[in-house]
Amino acid sequence: MNDDAERPDRAEERRHRELGQFLRKARERITPTEVGIDVSGRRRTPGLRREEVAALAGVSPVWYTWLEQGRDVQASPHVLSALASALRLSNPERDYIFRVGRGARTDVLEPPEVAPSLALLLHAMPVPVIILNHRLDILGHNDYADALYQLNSLPPEESNVIRMTFGPPGRRALFHNWTDLARTMVGMVRVSYAMHPDDPGLLKMIEDMRVESAEFARWWDEQFVNVHQGIVVKMCHPVVGDMSFDIISLRTFDELEITVGIYIPIDEKTNIAVRELCGVPRDPSDVPRASRDEPASHRPSSRPTPLAAEVDP
Known about the structure:
Blueprint: H1 8-29, H2 50-57, H3 61-68, H4 77-86, H5 91-101, H6 116-124, E1 129-132, E2 138-141, H7 143-149, H8 161-165, H9 169-172, H10 178-195, H11 200-212, H12 214-221, E3 231-237, E4 241-251, E5 259-265, H13 268-277, H14 289-293, H15 308-311
Antiparallel strand pairs: 1-2, 1-5, 3-4, 4-5
């Protein structure tokens, strides 16, 4: 087990360091003109200076410097709100600094299995659905999701969205927008990390990915934050071709922190492709007239071919 996970003081140190690094990155992204500061001459500091942020937020420059350095200082909700406004943070980023700055729960309940009500939803949806925990481990999926990603063939230790996304080149080749999608996933992990800074399973995954993937390490250091918002998947599937999905994320209102990711086809082409991929008969209105009149024996099979060799070479 990770030693850090057994020591609350180490978790507190990590939380302070995380908040300081995030504030520094946010400060460096803003130009003085964005906040109404006149600039004359050259500036060595990218973005705003620490004393400028402190003045905008109404706090002591020394105290803000300590906060950004990760020292053991506590920021009140009022101060965090002032800093969020001074740094022009988005709503997800504002929520993130509150989670990191005010501490987080560490008693994560591990669901032994997907709740029956979620299982019913899972298999009732005629689109891909994946159920995740806060580490983005895959707790459950339906047949549509398996047809899309070959999830049933994954070993348990690899059944995780982050490990899949940054995995073999064959999987990356499935996505037209892999870079945007992968960076978004890193932002989701950062939110989970803010809520569970001493979860040993989450820490191990982050440590592993920082070593295994240069892209993950770079985006992690950018302090990018995402809370399951605005995720679009553009695929080039080896069996049915191009598909595009909006992912709608639903959260459970309990202590298990379960997210249900529902893949909504963006267009009718994708809708038809998903049904073909799963061997679901087309609605007659989807089939061109020439195909409807063609003898069944002359029509191509709608069953998908195995993907293991094509997706994971």
